[in-house]
Specification:
Two copies of one chain form a homodimer. By secondary structure, the first copy, chain A, is α/β, with parallel strands linked by helices. In chain A, strand 6, helix 7 and strand 7 form a beta-alpha-beta unit. Chain A has one domain: 3-Layer(aba) Sandwich (Rossmann fold). Chain A has a seven-stranded parallel beta sheet, sandwiched between helices. The first copy, chain A, is built from eight helices and seven strands. The interface between A and B is medium-sized, with 35 and 35 residues.
Chain lengths: 211, 211
């Protein structure tokens, strides 16, 4: 019942976003996988072409919002009040608070959690997640739903591949088991390696959504 | 209401465990922080002195249960059926399935999640969590409750400290902000570095509980 109501609300939010031509991306990951660093790099790469807004969802603290504001994006902080995820209602409240006038793209940095955020449609047009190398290539086996709902899986921190038993081929195989259509893009958000493919994808999706 | 019922059930489980002299440890962390590797090392170090049982909680898959069985501990797999945490009822069912006769210590490997598992008292005697170096030292700021409820914080993967911007002093400071009594123990479960302090703590707590 809760899920059904949420799905309806999410569909309505997507419809509104379509009318205003604003692309909403829901970015998810484990704690510490590199959401904020990836977001910072993404803003840097796109800010001259695309107007970006960011909603930083955190249980507590506003460390990330301050970091992101430093990159020059319009940013608001959403506190979930202990909640482990965002639903469509909370996302819509965030969108209203942020104000989307003049924006092309809004990125929602979800709570760091591979379980609950995957269960709630936020109303985003697309879902992306970050799996970091230190977490291991077996994560799609253990957190199936997260990988099922994501259109893109960024495999971050590839600069530390030599220090971890991470098998990229196995990772891609396991992601595809969960979701044959998911794009897997290896990146290092810290150094910028591999970011072009991700930036291109995001730019194209944002443009297509406006049509 | 749900929390109140759960707390009551957790207290009752602890009482039963006290009567039978079985120490239950709830081990939590983010996905990929090293719960299973740490558990394997812990069993290796203790198995000649202490009889150990393990409950592996996973949303899906039984990869970890197979790994742990290889270390020679009595192990059962608990599937949460999509749930993001274990409550006291699920833990008690697990304890009954495992059977505690002859065991001194049962370790519950909780779902990889820094949010929801912290909200539910499982009935464990003590809580421990693993924070891994690649996740960053700011995690106690972002996931306050998890650090509040843990008696021990193992900081794992210290072998890769040179490759990450991880400040151990800041980490300890932030953990203490949340929980002045928490012990912080830096370890590398892969190499065994720093494990003695953890093993000693666990051995002492198990012995004290029997008295």
């Amino acid at each position: 019942m809760i899920f059904k109501d949420n799905n309806k609300q999410a569909d309505e939010l997507r419809k509104k976003l379509k009318e205003t031509g604003v692309f909403l991306l829901n970015l998810m990951s484990s704690p510490g996988a590199g959401k904020t660093t990836t977001l910072g790099r993404t803003i840097e790469a796109l800010k001259d072409e695309i107007k970006i807004g960011v909603m930083e969802a955190d249980i507590d603290s506003d460390v990330d919002a301050h970091t992101i504001a430093g990159y020059g994006a319009k940013v608001i902080q959403l506190h979930t009040g202990g909640m482990c995820h965002l639903d469509a209602g909370m996302t819509e409240d965030g969108i209203n608070e942020l104000g989307t006038e003049g924006l092309d793209l809004v990125i929602l940095e979800n709570v760091g959690n591979l379980v609950c955020p995957a269960e709630f449609d936020t109303g985003a047009v697309k879902n992306a997640m970050i799996l970091s190398v230190p977490e291991g290539h077996d994560k799609p086996l253990k957190y199936p739903l997260m990988f099922q709902v994501c259109d893109v899986v960024l495999v971050n921190k590839i600069d530390v591949l030599p220090y971890f038993d991470f098998n990229m081929e196995k990772c891609i195989e396991y992601v595809r088991m969960r979701n044959p259509k998911a794009q897997v893009i290896p990146i290092c958000a810290r150094t910028g390696e591999g970011m072009e493919q991700w930036i291109t994808w995001l730019k194209e999706e944002t443009a297509v959504w406006k049509k």
